[in-house]
Design goal:
Chain B: Keywords: ATP-binding, Lyase, Nucleotide-binding. The complex is a heterodimer of chains A (432) and B (259). Chain A has 432 residues and is mainly α. Chain A folds into 2 domains: 306 residues, Orthogonal Bundle (ABC transporter involved in vitamin B12 uptake, BtuC), CATH 1.10.3470; 58 residues. Chain A has 17 helices and 4 strands. Chain A has a two-stranded antiparallel sheet. In chain A, helix 4 crosses helix 13 and helix 15 crosses helix 16. The longest helix of chain A is centred in the C-terminal third of the chain and has 29 residues. Chain B is α/β, with parallel strands linked by helices and 259 residues long. Chain B is 32% helix and 25% strand. In chain B, the strands form 3 sheets. A 6-stranded mixed beta sheet of chain B has the order 6-9-10-3-11-12, sandwiched between helices. In chain B, strands 2-1-4-5 form a 4-stranded antiparallel beta sheet, covered by helices on one side. A two-stranded antiparallel ribbon of chain B has the order 7-8. Classes of the chains: A mainly alpha (432), B alpha/beta (259). At the A-B interface, helix 11 and helix 12 of A face helix 2, strand 8, helix 4, helix 5 and helix 6 of B. The complex binds adenosine-5'-diphosphate and magnesium ion. The site of magnesium ion (MG) has 4 residues of chain B, from helix 1.
Chain lengths: 432, 259
């Protein structure tokens, strides 16, 4: 039996700096050209074997949905409809990003629909009825969402009330408050030329804008991937082949520039889409690359382990509900923006749960798990495209509400069932 | 010995609702010493570990660190002192990879941004130094075998170069070869001056590495023995209560609390 070196002062003995790490069977861990290909094949096989219910499956699903609706109505894939779709996804998408934060710590926030309605109403009342400046009203409306989230988080994290009950109560409370706020005035129309209205109406008509964003995104991805590769390579760790990075960048560029081209054939890059993409980039970076984000994932993977590692579990929990409340309120402003009004009717609709269900479905379809610790904000982009494509397609075809409800509910059920099956497959392959 | 014990517990008690898990427990350990903690299931061994590691702080009693009185109220306090723990249940974040679990709560970062490359490099170095073989330090811990999990948990505990190491039944999930590897490791870190509290049911393990054995029974001290001079039977009878040690002073009032 051989003894290892000492690990005092965290400096293990017998370390050869810069040496290429070697696997148990003695082969270098860097991937050669053919190994890279083989690994890639294995990766793809892994995705289809259901271990990683990767984005590829969702993308395939989205393509099928688009083809079906295009066959039923040839306006579906028109630049106009796709451009509108790219704006329609933003309200639900922002709410869904908030849901992702909460799902990652293995909890749920059922109040987001009501909170988004509350934010829209609060903005309208403050700006239109009370005459507050738009910026102030926007900040207060979003901050109200943050406060509501803190309130839920307090009941859940510190008093130990299950989150689904707290936020279910919240669903009714905040919807009630919204109706109460609007009660005196009924429908409030917001300024069609104003800040909030421009959230969904403003487009950057100069074609250069959309192309610049596409170019920036592609270049950013390439540089980040390349930098990672160099660092891993310098440290003697497995790294992606240059060819693989180029392929991925190429695919990304293709999608980004095709989207930019399509948007430019209508009214150019929508402001709403730009904001949504920015939120996705920032929240993904925080979650996956920072110390704070690591705590969030840790909570979803094992609360006890996180607690023992000295993570302030309660504080992270409250923070996640605050993020969810904030993004729900922000998303609510986009909903109000596209309606250019806040009304008791839309408030009741917000309370009915359609937005909530769409947001949860978007997160889960994209691959964020209801069982905590798995998923990312980017999952929302794909998920919300699927959900809104279905909604938009059904709208074009004039499908009645009753049927839309059943279909949306069915899609959510299918998504969570797939999530549960993935989890079972993982549990089987996991610990023996 | 001239030096005060690195860790000393005096009169530690802990209650969970109706269960009095620990009553007036004393325990001392010096640098470079292995103290085995023995006792029947439910004797309070894991509870004592969690008291020391700050997960379940004591209700009463004093804890001295290198001769001065300290408070351990949170896991952070214990970690700051230099106490590392491998818990019996090996709780980990199943969704994170080995590197993520090794560095959980003490990630290497630059202004809040994780330095994954440096963490992975150190993880590999540590695994190599401890002769631990894993297919990949980037695989999620959910995919590890029980023995591999154990190895990761122990590596994690050794990472901060602690002064006191608590091992709660570390050999329970291990095979023969892995166990002897672990015992080697314990001796080695002991030789570097670490103090180790080893909880084990296995008399062979205790005899092999421990200097002293402390026995807990129904949450109380029930004997402290020098391993070199005690027989296996003596330890077992202290564990089962066949011979209540003079150290144990059980009051009748508490008996009812035990099922
Ligand atoms: N978190 C807890 N809540 C309630 N009772 C507990 C808790 N932890 C331990 N106990 C009780 O304390 C007693 C001692 O348990 P434990 O320390 O796990 O024993 P051992 O590790 O010696 O087998 C048992 O009766 C157990 O049921
Ligand atoms: Mg135990």
């Amino acid at each position: 039996m051989s003894r290892g070196g000492s690990q005092r002062d965290g400096e293990p003995a017998g370390t050869e700096r810069g040496a290429v790490p070697v696997t148990a069977d003695g082969r270098p861990r860097t991937r050669g050209w053919s190994d890279g290909l083989r690994a890639y094949a294995l990766e793809i096989r892994g995705i289809f074997q259901g271990g990683e219910r990767g984005p590829l499956v969702v993308i395939a699903g989205l393509i099928v949905i688009w083809i079906v609706f295009q066959a039923l109505d040839d306006k579906f894939l028109s630049p106009r409809n796709l451009s509108n779709l790219s704006v329609e996804i933003v309200g639900t998408g922002l709410v869904a990003v908030g849901i992702v934060f909460v799902l990652l710590i293995r909890e749920i926030d059922l109040s987001v629909g009501s909170v988004s309605g509350l934010a829209g109403a609060a903005f309208a009342v403050l700006n239109v009825n009370q005459g507050w400046p738009e910026w102030t009203a926007v900040i207060v409306a979003v901050a109200a969402g943050t406060a509501v989230g803190a309130f839920h988080g307090f009941f859940f994290a510190w008093l130990g009330v299950p989150a689904f009950v707290v936020t279910l109560a919240g669903l009714l409370i905040w919807n009630g408050l919204t109706l109460y706020l609007l009660g005196a005035s009924g429908t409030i129309n917001i300024d069609e030329e104003g800040l909030v209205a421009s959230l969904t109406s403003r487009h950057f008509e100069d074609p250069a804008a959309a192309y610049a964003v596409a170019a920036l995104g592609t270049a950013g991805y390439f540089l980040a991937a390349h930098r990672r590769r160099s660092r891993h390579r310098a440290a003697g760790m497995p790294y992606r082949q240059t060819a693989e990075i180029w392929t991925r960048t190429g695919v990304l560029a293709l999608v980004a520039f095709a989207a930019a081209y399509t948007l430019n054939r209508f009214q150019g890059l929508p402001l709403a889409l730009l904001i949504f993409l920015a939120v996705l980039v920032v929240s993904d970076y925080v979650l996956r690359r920072t110390r704070y984000g690591r705590r969030v994932y840790a909570l979803g993977g094992g609360v006890e382990a996180a607690r023992r590692a000295g993570i302030g579990v309660e504080r992270v929990r409250v923070a996640m509900f605050m993020v969810s409340g904030t993004l729900a309120a922000f998303g609510g402003l986009f909903v109000a923006s596209s309606l250019t009004s806040a009304s008791p009717t839309t408030a009741r609709a917000a309370g009915s749960g359609m937005l909530l269900i769409n947001a949860i479905a978007a997160a889960v379809i994209g691959g964020t798990s209801l069982f905590g610790g798995r998923g990312s904000p980017w999952s929302v982009l794909l998920g919300v495209l699927v959900i809104q494509s279905i909604a938009s397609g059904m709208g074009l075809l004039g499908v009645e509400d009753a049927v839309q409800f059943m279909i949306t509910g069915g899609v959510l059920l299918a998504a969570v069932a797939a999530d549960a099956l993935t989890r079972r497959a993982e549990a089987r392959r996991g610990r023996p | 010995m001239a030096h005060p014990p690195v860790l000393a517990l005096r009169g530690v008690s802990k209650r969970f609702g109706g269960v009095q898990a620990l009553v007036d427990v004393d325990l001392q350990i010096r640098a470079g010493e292995v103290v085995a903690l023995a006792g029947d299931n439910g004797a309070g061994k894991s509870t004592l570990v969690k008291v020391i590691s700050g997960v379940n702080p004591a209700d009463r009693g004093a804890i001295e660190w290198e001769g001065r009185l300290v408070q351990i109220k949170r896991p952070h306090d214990a970690h700051a002192l230099g106490i590392a723990t491998v818990y019996q249940d090996l709780a980990m974040c199943d969704n994170l990879d080995v590197v993520g679990n090794l560095f959980l709560g003490r990630e290497i970062d630059r202004v809040g941004v994780l330095d994954e490359v440096e963490m992975e490099r150190r993880a590999r170095d540590l695994m190599r130094a401890l002769s631990i073989r894993l297919p990949d330090v980037r695989m999620p811990v959910a995919a590890l075998s029980a023995g591999q999990r154990q190895a990761v948990a122990i590596s994690r505990s050794l990472m901060g170069a602690p002064k006191v190491l608590l091992l709660d039944e570390p050999t329970a999930a291990l095979g023969v070869e892995q166990t002897s590897h672990l015992l080697d490791l314990i001796e080695e870190v002991r030789d570097h001056g670490m103090a180790i509290i080893l909880i084990s049911h296995n008399m062979g393990d205790i005899k092999a590495v421990a200097d002293r054995v402390a026995v807990l029974r129904l949450g109380r001290n029930n004997g402290l023995f020098d391993v070199s001079s005690v027989t296996q039977e003596q330890i077992i009878s202290a564990v089962t209560g066949a011979a209540d040690n003079a150290v144990a002073h059980r009051s009748k009032g508490d008996e009812g609390a035990w099922p």
